[in-house]
Amino acid sequence: MQFPSQNLYSALRAAFPADLDQTAVYASACDGRPLNYSWRDLDRASACIANLLLSLDLPEGSRVAVQVEKSVEALLLYLATLRCGFIFLPLNTAYQQAEIDYFIGDATPAVVVCTPEHFGWVSKIAFKAGTRHVFTLGQERNGSLLERAAHCSDAHTPVRRTKDDLACILYTSGTTGRSKGAMLTHGNLLSNALVLKDYWGWRTPEQGGDVLIHALPIYHAHGLFVGVHGALINGSPMIWFNRFDARAVIAAMPRASVFMGVPTLYVRMLAEPALTREAAAHMRLFISGSAPLLVDTFAAWQQRTGHTILERYGMSETVMLCSNPYARDVRHGGQGERRGGTVGFPLPGVELRVVDDAGAALPAGEIGAIQVRGPNVFKGYWHMPEKTAQEFAEGGWFKTGDVGQQDARGYVTIVGRGKDLIISGGFNVYPAEVESWINEMPGVAESAVVGVPHADFGEVGVAVVVPRAGAKPDPEAIIARLRDTLAHFKVPRRCFVASELPRNSMGKVQKNLLREQYRELFLKA
Ligand code: AMP
User: Fold this and answer.
1) Are residues 345 and 453 both part of a single domain?
2) What is the DSSP string of 225-246?
3) Which end of the chain has fewer CB atoms surrounding its CB within 10 Å, N or C?
4) For ligand 1, is residue 315 a contact (CB within 6 Å)?
């Protein structure tokens, strides 16, 4: 597809349906009233905000940092930033003052947009860091950003950009160490959106069209890039939820065809009796990612709804990397099976290899570090040239930090994060392997295994187990069963029962918190 400029907005705009008065976003106001936006509304309102940003006379490459609650207006601000060729920097609404201080100090944005409630402390931090403009944006279409934008023209031509120009900086979720700003270009985002358009068989309006249920946050790659770009590049409307509500999402399914969620959202919907085969009958595709989907959840969803969840794998630095097939994949002998517990094949255009500690490529089936290459791979970490250089191997391969394998059929399985690997007495223990055995045991809903310091072994495993409703699994019995099944160096030294695992807002288990919690366990004399 040829676009007049590589500005991502131009490409998205080119896909809008011819009839701009059709609905693009079905949303609701805070009091529940329906609030719909046409394609023309998206174009004009984002033009007003773009003109406001341009009137500020900001330098080229300015960053626009945004920490607001999810709303359609926050999406318009994103589109406006793209139109102007500035760099969008979304921030999780859960971040507190010390974190915002770090992000604003690091990224030195020219513009900061925050909620009206947080204006006092956010503006103080921003002005101290040299930011010249702080606007507010509330969830009820209130705040200074829209007040000012309302006075601006609704006509705007997107600024020309090349594919290598920056579009966004996403700070990595930072479940370990300091969060790093991943710099993504217009080309990274557009190439990925176009690949997914084909690979997931999005239906254009002429083919009957798709409707996406958008219930994810938009400060993260999943909701912003996979969700929003997926719908817009296909001219597909979205049913928009500012926050996830299992019942409301199930009730929207008869009007929709595609849903994207993190595994936790699937678990929550399965807890609702309203989730039935009939409720999901109109849907075409359920997609899961951002964290591993338990095989149990995959199977339960299939049984309850008749749909096979399509699991995919990606990260802030690379957007989407792998996906289970939607249809038969001719690159892999026409295989079309979505396999639970795997993340499928590398997407077209993405090269993936599994390497050993010395960086040599491993044969199929062997576990090692996952490296990738392709037009989707980011430009580097903001202001961290050395860190960036360390994360790339010779030949431009990006070290994902994930450990996994690719089997002879081409399916990739993620075994865990490299940093989660436990080295006990010199032996490698992959937590995912141990967790999968524990998860099979009666009474266990899920588990997490982490390494903690140990004087003799360097590290040993500790398991945290979440029981199924009404069950009381016995930690001693779990350890005893593992000892019958696995090499002893893999068996956790201790097992604890907890009501839930600590998770971040994208559903990822925060193993760093568990490691911290149990750090002293074997160090005490
Ligand atoms: P983020 O940059 O916050 O999107 O986090 C990316 C990380 O999430 C990846 O490096 C993986 O460790 C993990 N991840 C994403 N999708 C999956 C998946 N389907 N299965 C397992 N881990 C995943």
Assistant:
1) no
2) IIIIIHHHTTT--EEE-SS--H
3) C
4) yes
Instruction: Give the tens place of pLDDT for each residue, 406-437.
Output: 999 999 999 888 888 888 877 788 898 899 89
Q: Quick one: 441 and 404 in the same domain?
A: no
Ligand 1 centroid, distance to 101 Cα (angstroms): 26
Among 399, 414, 512, say which to mutate for ligand 1: greatest number of ligand atoms within 8 Å of CB. 414
Regarding whether 316 and 410 lie in a shared domain, the answer is: yes
Does 325 share its domain with 384? yes
**216 CA distance to ligand 1 centroid (A)?**
15
20-48: buried (b, 16+ CB within 10 Å) or exposed (e) per residue? eebebbbbeeeeeeeeebbbebbbbbbbb
Domain of 469 in residue numbering reads as: 421-518
Whether 223 is in the pocket of ligand 1, judged by its Cβ within 6 Å, is no
Residues 153 and 45 in one domain: yes
Q: Are residues 398 and 435 in the same domain?
A: no
Which domain-ending residue is among 375, 403, 419?
419
Q: How far is the CA of 315 from the centre of ligand 1 (A)?
A: 5
Asked if residue 353 is part of any domain, the answer here is: yes
Residues 409 and 503 reside in one and the same domain? no
- Nearest-atom number in ligand 1 for the CA of 288 is 19
The beta-carbon contacts of 521-525 under 8 Å, at least 24 apart in sequence, are: 521/452, 521/462, 521/494, 522/452, 522/453, 522/454, 522/455, 522/460, 522/493, 523/453, 523/454, 523/455
Summarize pLDDT for 221-266 with one digit per residue, the tens. Answer: 999 999 999 999 999 999 999 999 999 999 999 999 999 999 989 9
pTM given for the model: 0.90
Mutational pocket test of ligand 1: of 313, 316, 371, 421, the residue with most ligand atoms within 8 Å of the beta carbon: 313
